[in-house]
Design goal:
6-stranded mixed sheet, Rossmann fold, alpha/beta, UDP-N-acetylmuramoyl-L-alanine:D-glutamate ligase, 3 domains, disordered C terminus
Length: 510
């Protein structure tokens, strides 16, 4: 694939523009007043947001989409068109109008999710369009700014979002590209006017090695994508290349792999005995959040409060402290931002509370993530719900056959903090089915270590089970990176409709 990116005015066309990573890039490009089009097989609030800022969205993936800018040009005598897309960009940043030759084909951007047999992709090749991987465009943007790239197997969306929020609250007006939607900027991206860019850097397909950022943060390193990596050693190699390409690395040395193989220039840890540059003590985990005293190289900085639950999020917040201090921000500014950050969507996101049942949506899909998320759920259910019976009901949709097969044993042992586990079938994410692996087999593996496991083969049978079995005092947490969360509104609505028949104390609460 061609890796050079032209920001001088040549159009960009995104195949699969509605994806969380693709749409963030498209948003920033469109806000920079460059011509943007894209296709996706379904409309969503994400594609509608892109349309609202001038991107043209196609509902089908076909060859004629690639001719959009030529077909809609106003040609002059020289066979060119002038795109007067606005003299100013977001927050008043100046972007000059561009002249686009009518014969110029768009730069076509796609992700690893786009198959080589995709009709629109094949047409782009046949037409001779420049083809860019999503990571090529992100790498070019990273080079355009003083960039902070957040990498790691787990926690990168929360950490990068929290950093973006910190810079925003500190008045540094950053450009932000993350893998989750955040209320503070009403989406997964924003265009700022300053030199700063905060980007989530994904290792899933190996493209992490393309990024050269001013600051690189690594939260942890594990094998999570066996469809791309043969073993952990290959993952480590990728992170080592990334670290070498960053001018400064910040890393969590609670992860022994980070500590031993990356040796970050700035370290952080939840354990004071590690001797990390940034650490904490006097930690208190409560249902409404976490508090801790923060240390910087042997000196007390002060107390930090965060709304987010669990050890993993305290670690993410400590990475934000390290980054903020490296940029010269006062701890009071950092702590104030962290205290008001409410998280990204699908990261322990509350979706409703009715009849004494709390509904939580979480993206966790790796055994380590599930274990950490359920531990946080246990803290919350014990502290917030005042009912005789307090249960964590984990509803899990395995993601990808390759991951499920590789970590089958680990999946069996990561649900100890749940009282009830409901497992549905595997979300393939486009992978071919493996005959020897299934959601039912995952349920059987969990049942070796857990007394209450139920297998429900489809989303509809999961929905039916939940409407028949949830009870006041339950925290129902939906786990997975697939489409399991689509049934949450249906289940919430069911309990809302039956709320009138419940005792007053069990009815819908804010």
């Amino acid at each position: 694939m061609l890796t050079s990116v032209d920001f001088s005015g040549r159009p960009f066309h995104f195949i699969g523009i509605g994806g969380i990573g693709m749409s963030a890039l498209a948003y920033v490009i469109a806000q920079r007043k460059l011509p943007v089009s894209g296709s996706d097989i379904r409309s969503s609030h994400i594609t509608e947001r892109l349309q609202a800022i001038g991107a043209h969205i196609f509902a089908e993936q076909q060859a004629s989409n690639l001719e959009f800018f030529s077909a809609n040009s106003n040609s002059g005598s020289n066979g060119s068109k002038t795109e007067t897309l606005g003299e100013t960009g977001n927050n008043g940043t100046a972007y000059k109008a561009v002249t686009i030759p009518e014969t110029v084909l768009p730069q076509v951007v796609c992700s690893t999710a786009i198959d080589s047999a995709n009709t629109e992709y094949r047409a782009a090749l046949d037409l001779g369009c420049p083809i860019l991987h999503r990571s090529d465009l992100l790498a070019a943007l990273i080079q355009d700014y003083y960039s902070i790239a957040v990498a790691g197997t787990h926690g990168k969306t929360t950490t990068s979002s929290m950093i973006g929020y910190l810079l925003l609250e500190a008045g540094l007006d950053p450009t932000i590209i993350v893998g989750g939607e955040v209320t503070a900027w009403q989406g997964n991206a924003r265009l700022g006017t300053s030199k700063y860019l905060v980007a989530e850097a994904d290792e899933s397909d190996g493209s992490l090695v393309k990024f050269s950022s001013e600051i690189g943060i690594v939260t942890n390193i594990e094998l999570d994508h066996p469809d791309h990596y043969e073993n952990l050693a290959e993952v480590i190699d990728t992170f080592q290349v990334f670290a070498r390409r960053c001018k400064t690395t910040i890393g969590c040395i609670d992860c022994t792999t980070v500590k031993e193989h990356l040796k970050p220039a700035i370290s952080y840890s939840l354990k004071p005995e590690t001797g990390a540059d940034y650490t904490v003590d006097r930690v208190v985990y409560r249902a409404e959040g976490t508090t801790a005293r923060v240390w910087e190289r042997g000196q007390i900085l002060g107390q930090m409060n965060l709304k987010l639950l669990g050890e993993h999020n305290l670690s993410n917040a400590l990475a934000v402290v390290a980054l903020g201090r490296h940029l010269g921000l006062k701890f009071e500014v950092i702590a104030s931002a962290i205290a008001t950050f409410s998280g990204a969507r699908r990261r322990f996101e509350k979706r409703g509370e009715v009849n004494g049942i709390r509904f939580i949506d979480d993206y966790a899909h790796h055994p380590s993530e599930i274990s950490a998320t359920l531990a946080a759920a246990r803290i919350q259910v014990n502290g917030l719900l005042e009912f005789p019976q307090k249960r964590v009901v984990a509803i899990f949709q395995p993601h990808r056959y390759s991951r499920t097969q590789t970590f089958l044993s680990e999946f069996g042992q990561c649900f100890s903090s749940a009282d009830v586990v409901v497992v549905t079938d595997i979300y393939s994410a486009g992978e071919a089915k493996l005959d020897d692996i299934s959601g039912e087999r995952v349920a059987q593996e969990i049942a070796k270590h857990h007394p209450q496991v139920v297998y429900q083969p489809s989303l509809q049978t999961v929905r039916r089970f939940l409407t028949e079995n949830l009870q006041p005092g339950d925290l129902a947490i939906f786990l997975g990176a697939g489409n399991l969360n689509q049934i949450i509104p249906e289940v919430v609505t069911f309990y809302e409709q039956t709320a009138q028949g419940m005792p007053q104390e069990y009815r819908l609460r804010a």
